[in-house]
């Protein structure tokens, strides 16, 4: 069997590596003309995602490029400590969730795939495909074609494959928030290394962690109407943070700030597969970054798909088995993440209620087992 994988983000290389482990050839086709080595800020790879990477023997390089971040402390904008929760649960060898620059994660998984002989072709934007009894042919915008036995779509939130598969597929759903972030050298911010401090401010949500190196990694979620983008994101964010602890606005002013990106997720997608074509990762079940699970879900998908293709007699049965094993879990993660995002975008009245109720919620959620369904999910090939 040969799989044509559409998309070379995180899920694409992970899927190719998982398929290779069960004896299936894979080739990756990326729409953009160049790699994503300098794209994006940073993200969380939760302990369940690292566990999945360990199954692919690709976890060590990811951990080496990131920083361990096992805990989160929640604060109100006025400086009141609201509570603490785990950022994932430690694996049996002590491995905890890590924060890593998105570009580093792209680079690591891509290089792992290349090192295992998996071909990656850039400048291949999918425009259509055609199935036959013997296989499927992908056609690209530049006129090139590729033929294989199946197409696995790992082309993200705005998946072209999802639309080709089902014209009625739901569109991405805006969360009400824009995301910004940065890394500041010698910021002078104190804090326990590896602990995320999450601040529910008056007009913005602000998170930061101090690395052992002294660098401060920060991000912010700014409630805003979709399309209402300021000329200067740094000034807009600093103004939104002005009513909270002065250190946060100062952090923003001291470093560069990329243009804010609107945060979307996907409502339940009815059709994950048809014929020889299957959706995975964000193409099937994009979640907001609030749960820190987007990359982890894509890596889990890769391993489950490989296991199903090896176990079942054909691609149809394998795709059906894959959906049975994944749908309930990923939709639960998407719903969980959306609830967290909604708390960040609270209005004046809802903000007061949130700050009153959040300590109770956090106490109930602080026990390890309350989040075990998410973080202790293990998949074995």
Sheet with the most strands? Answer: 7 strands, mixed
CATH fold category name of one domain: FAD/NAD(P)-binding domain
Can you identify the CATH class of one domain? Answer: Alpha Beta
**Shape label:** globular
What is the residue-mean pLDDT, rounded to a whole number? Answer: 90
Structural class: alpha/beta
Q: Identify the strand order in the major beta sheet.
A: 6-5-14-15-16-13-17
CATH architecture of one domain: 3-Layer(bba) Sandwich
Number of helical runs? 12
Task: Report the radius of gyration as a whole number of Å.
Answer: 21 Å
Distance between the termini: 18 Å
Residue stretches low in confidence (pLDDT < 50, at least 5 long) are none
How would you characterize the overall build of this protein?
The chain has helices at 11-21, 47-55, 59-65, 102-115, 160-165, 233-241, 246-254, 282-285, 294-311, 315-344, 348-365, 372-375; strands at 2-6, 25-29, 42-45, 67-68, 71-76, 81-86, 98-101, 120-121, 126-131, 136-140, 145-148, 150-153, 173-184, 195-200, 205-210, 216-223, 261-265, 273-274, 277-279. The protein is of the alpha/beta class and 381 residues long. The protein has a domain at 2-67 and 102-172 and 266-343: FAD/NAD(P)-binding domain, CATH 3.50.50. The chain has a seven-stranded mixed sheet with strand order 6-5-14-15-16-13-17, with helices on both faces. Strands 8-2-1-12-19-18 form a six-stranded mixed sheet. Strand 15 and strand 16 form a beta hairpin. The longest helix is centred in the C-terminal third of the chain and has 30 residues, at 315-344. It is globular. It starts with a strand and ends in a 6-residue tail after the last helix.
């Amino acid at each position: 069997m040969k799989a044509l994988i559409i998309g070379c983000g995180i899920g694409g290389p992970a899927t190719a590596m998982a398929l290779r482990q069960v004896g299936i050839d894979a080739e990756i086709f990326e729409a953009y003309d160049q790699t994503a080595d300098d794209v994006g800020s940073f993200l969380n790879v939760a302990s369940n995602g690292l566990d999945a990477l360990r199954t692919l023997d690709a976890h060590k390089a990811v951990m080496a490029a990131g920083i361990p971040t096992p805990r989160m402390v929640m604060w109100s904008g006025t400086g009141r400590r609201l509570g603490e929760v785990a950022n994932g649960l430690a694996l049996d060898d002590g491995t905890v969730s890590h924060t890593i620059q998105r570009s580093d994660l792209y680079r690591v998984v891509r290089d792992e795939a290349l090192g295992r002989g998996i071909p990656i072709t850039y400048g291949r934007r999918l425009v259509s495909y055609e199935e036959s009894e013997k296989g499927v042919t992908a056609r690209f915008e530049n006129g090139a074609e590729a033929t294989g036995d199946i197409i696995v779509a790992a082309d993200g939130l705005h998946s072209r494959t999802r639309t080709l598969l089902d014209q009625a597929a739901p569109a991405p759903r805006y969360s009400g928030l824009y995301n910004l972030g940065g890394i500041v050298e010698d910021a002078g911010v104190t804090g326990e290394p590896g602990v995320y401090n999450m601040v529910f401010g008056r007009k913005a949500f602000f998170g930061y962690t101090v690395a052992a190196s002294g660098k401060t990694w920060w991000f912010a979620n700014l409630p805003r109407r979709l399309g209402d983008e300021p000329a200067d994101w740094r000034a807009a964010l600093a103004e939104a943070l002005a009513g909270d602890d002065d250190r946060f606005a100062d952090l923003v002013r001291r470093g560069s700030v990329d243009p804010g990106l609107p945060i979307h997720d996907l409502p339940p997608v009815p059709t994950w597969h048809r014929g020889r074509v299957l959706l995975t990762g964000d193409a099937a079940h994009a979640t907001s970054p609030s749960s820190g699970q987007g990359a982890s879900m894509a890596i889990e998908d890769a391993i489950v798909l490989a296991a199903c293709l090896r176990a079942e007699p054909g691609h149809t049965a394998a795709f059906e088995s894959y959906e049975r094993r994944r749908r309930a879990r990923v939709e639960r993660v998407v719903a969980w993440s959306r609830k967290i995002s909604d708390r960040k975008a609270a209005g004046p009245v809802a903000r007061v209620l949130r700050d009153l109720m959040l300590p109770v919620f956090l106490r109930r959620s602080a026990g390890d087992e309350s989040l075990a369904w998410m973080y202790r999910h293990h998949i074995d090939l």
